[in-house]
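Minutes, structural biology subgroup

Action item carried over from last meeting: produce the structure token record for Bacterial Ig-like domain (Group 1) (Corynebacterium pelargi). EB confirmed the sequence was re-checked against the source entry. Recorded below for completeness.
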Amino acid sequence: MSKRAFFATAAAMSIAASALITPVAHAAGVEASHRDGDSIFNRSVSSNEVVVGQTLTYTQSFERKARTDAIYSWTNKVNSCLEYVPGSAKLNIADQAQNIEAAQVKATKGSTTISAPEGKWTYSTDQPHTFQLSYRVTQDCANEQTLESGFSYEYDGFWGSKTSKDYRASKFNGGPAAQVVAKIKTASTTTLSPLPEYVAVGVETPLIATVQAADGAAVAGQSITFQDGSETLCSAKINAEGFATCKWKPASLGDKSVKARFGGTDAIAASESETYKVKVLSAVPKQPQDLTFTEEKLNDQVHTIVSGKATPGAVVEALAPGGNRCVATADEDGNFSCNLGYLPAGKERGVAVTEKIDGVQGEVATLVGDVAEGNPHALESFLQVLRKIGFGIQDFFKRLFDPNTWVAVGSA
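Output recorded by EB:
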């Protein structure tokens, strides 16, 4: 299972347990995972920021990639300034809530242990076990203190002997960690407007993002940075409507992962948008234009020449349904021509033409015309069949270049 899958499972288990615990309202929960052999441990904390007097909830799931394992007891280890909330211990096995008696829970400063009522619990691939515990943030927790956590558990060792293992906070990004603050910041949401799949190097592309803060908190005048990973592409100020716009001029070819980030203020929390994948090309391929047929006699046969306009430097391909094909490179003015060879005479001869730039194909253009001289060929009969069944010639050529959309002739 991939790391991304670990997080997805942790989120799912948190959702399953959410019916038991009311989440903290103002700050976002965080998750982290660790794999040890066939066991996967997913941990989450209900808030990454807390104030004194608030409740902090820890959730942990035990999963297996193969076989089974046992849990005799689970000990959650936290800062000593946190006070266990009696009655908050919960357990879900798969999606079924289990009863936890007070006698199964032992709470001391800095640790809380839940023990199995009848020897042990057994967890497996289809029977994950998820525990929850809640703590009150006491006055002993200092402002700006980082609250870290870890755990240990007892399980079946070699030859069935009971053994235990400790997992430190460092394996879970601090447990995950939470920060004690004087005041919870107002939440914000950053949204990046959709971007095209392809953009051209050296050509300005507008990046537009919006920021909204909860409770109508003002964000106008603050900055948004637009990033490719950790690299800043450009930045802009947020206007009175919550929008920020900047012009990105890509300097290099390749794949980019573009997101917008609001850094936050003393009162408003930072936030990031979803990431858009964008490929920077030397130019964005387009549909060839001004297509024409001309005829030239070579070796006692009339050859069909396809000409037109494309993006300068683009590789242009022309394809006829009989299999005739030619390739040319557009010159610095975008002009191209290529020889399709001999095409049987007939009405409405169809040729599909596309251009490629950096391996990316543009939209298909279709050229339909009459080819003079000669007798009808099997190709003409084929086109007549298409017309009789109402199969559009232009649509046919689009399908010809995109096999993912191909359907059998005559299908519904």
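Discussion: Residues 3-17 form the longest helix (15 residues).
Next step: EB to file the record with the rest of the batch.
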